[in-house]
Amino acid sequence: MFVVPFERDPQLGTRATLTEAEAKERNAGVDAFVEGAPQNVFPEVGRGPALTSLIVEPENGRLPPLTEDGARRAKQWRVVADPEYRAASAAELRPYDRCITRGVLGSSEPLR
Predict the structure, then answer these.
(1) pLDDT for residue 111 is more than 60
(2) Distance of alpha carbon 97 from its chain centroid, rounded?
(3) What distance in Å separates the CA atoms of residue 14 and residue 11, rounded to the nearest whole number?
């Protein structure tokens, strides 16, 4: 359960924060979720700030549509989500699809 959604609900328009009543309602849902779960199963779930979304720019709090180039690249990177798609070779898969990582220490360093 994510306390603050990634994208803003379109009904909220450009509001960056919830009212006090809306925040209480969301926190009540979080409390009910945590109380119903076994202890320490969801330690990351908790009350969050009264933000309407994690995206703060653009002002509507929503991801902008993909550009033509972005849509082309996203199509190239399709993998496991489409059960009909079968990669012709490992070169068509992303490193994370192939479970290749830079390790714990490598993940703290920027790519060069």
Answers:
(1) no
(2) 18
(3) 9
